[in-house]
Amino acid sequence: MLASRPSRRTVLAGSAAAAALAALPLSASAQSASAQSASAGPYRWRNVVIGGTGFVTGVLFHPSVRGLAYARTDIGGAYRWDDRRARWTPVTDHLGWDDWNLLGVEAMAVDPAHPDRLYLALGTYAQAWAGNGAVLRSEDRGATWARTDLTVKLGANEDGRGCGERLLVDPRDSDTLWLGTRHDGLLKSTDRGATWAPAPGFPATPSASGQGVTLLVAAGRAVYAGWGDAGGTGPNLFRTTDGATWTAAPGQPSGTAAEVPVRAAYDRFTRELYVTYADAPGPNGQADGSVHKLATGSGRWTEVTPVRPGGTTPDGSADTFGYGGVAVDARRPGTVVVSTNNRWAAVDTLYRTTDGGRTWTSLKDSAVLDVSETPYLKWGEKSPKFGWWIQALAVDPYDSRHVVYGTGATLYGTRDLVRWAPQIRGLEETSVRQLISPPAGEAHLLSGSGDIGVMYHELLTASPADGMAANPVFGSATGLAQAAADASYVVRSGWGDHGNGAYSEDGGRTWAPFAAQPDIARSAPGPIATNTDGSVLLWSFVHWDGTKHPTHRSTDNGTTWSEVSSFPKGATPVADPADPTLFYAYDTDTGTVYASTDSGRSFTARATGLPSGDSQFKLVAAPGRSGDLWLSAKWNGLYRSTDQGASFAKVAGCRASYTLGFGKAADGAAYPAIYQVGSTDSGTAVLRSDDEAKTWTRINDDAHQWGWTGEAITGDPRLYGRVYLATNGRGIQYGDPA
Question: Is the pTM of this model over 0.85?
Fold first, then answer.
């Protein structure tokens, strides 16, 4: 999933050798957050329903328990399948602010002999600026956890995140676990994941770049490990039969189509190991691939590739792709399903064989897709695609016709191999960037997100009936704003299919693209604002690499645009909620607030000397008031101005403020309720103030933290106590007083 990150640095760094560390009962952030001086809500927290919206990188049915399965995602944690309720239950929401890097799940493992045991390897990025990985282990299917911090980094949101699984319980000994890393070789634990050390005798040499171990799989009493750094010339599959000695599997495939072993599955009836290969780890960048099987007893390899990449489609496009997922049928010998991956011209598919790979059938060709529960999956078209980024794939060991596969946006399932529908209830992985709760109208929530653009929620308990906001469809939203005095008028910006800006005159239900856009909008669409009555638009432009460009202004609903040279480049425009002639901007480079009193034609500096140096500082205007501004300055705290930005005072008792918003005032209160992600005297939490920031109450709890939550928060102007919270991988959370 393309997700917003707390840091944008991309320096690669190797890690130190693994060392044993003592297990912790809970995440450090969970413990520190509980020390807030303000008492907890209590609040009831739920997901706003969108339905999936992120890359499901792994699905794992438990081999010994009917109806038990787990799913992992690249930035949104892990989930347990509740077969009785037909929905997923998140099992990592307790990970808090300080542990944001652990919301990416690199790998998961179950113990066939102990059904209640679950293991997760966590770590979103392997870059130098990211924290080290960790292993969580549970004795109750993820209800509670023990934790071991690692001294190596994992990369659940990097290339190769659909490979695996990289974590395995040894088939000979439930106390022994194996963990494949990207840059630090193979690790081994002999105490059920409590401590880890490098596996002795593993022959592949780790490096500070590349993929390292891509998969671990049990084949009888043997363990096989895939290696992603062989480059098509050296061994890329190793095995051990005694847990101590590792050797290269003899006779293994080589060449471009077999550079990276992506996934593997073992048929216990025929004693054959099926391995999918690609010329790159994926999910992007694959152009070649193959499928092979190994008779583990004789060591004989057979190529069983359903279709070789490299042909052409009817329109003449090159049919390039790799192979990704592979799953065997635990009830029927020789029955296997594999997936193509990165097949954009002909669209990815699943191939199924019932004769050990001699013949294959494309399941896409007969598939009937029903996305009525999550209409956004049509992406503005008449019908949805069968899938893309298909690397997660599983066959229910108790039902041969129950097949599930993950895509870049959802998890599809079938019970008859013909009719497919999202099997995604409870699993929400959106990276959310903007939130608006309108003061009037049918929708209580408008949202802008990475990958899926803008959505209009009339019901919080159902995916929007109209799907993503169309005309144009956005891949990712960069701006969303509503006229304070006219809730029917909304504007948005982002990466669109027919222009990068649009407006709505019915509160966000339907949209029309701007008649024109500045040339820079094609490559650097940034945040957008509209004044109180919707008569003026300001559109800021920031390139993905951080380059800032001049802001533009329109007074004719986006038909013509003019440059505003005095506006600080790259800043987010903020409209005054009461005066249509007033706009504000915060220059994060210099710590200066700018204001315009002529409807955005020109800007002059006002308050100076404020915190600077971080583009994620946020300036927010209090609703219904002119010139009442609040500045969330992250670890520098919270600041307020009541004179249109001429001066700011630091708010006492607020040690950190990452994002801030407003909602309906409490009964008898004269000022709106204030919500923020920040901290008073201890850890980061979700807070509410009913007395103009004099005191704060923590309204989330240790079980509901969701990692990094610093992008957006807003209260509902019509329901006191209701708050909407944007997360970086767990969708939109909303809370109500219990």
Answer: yes
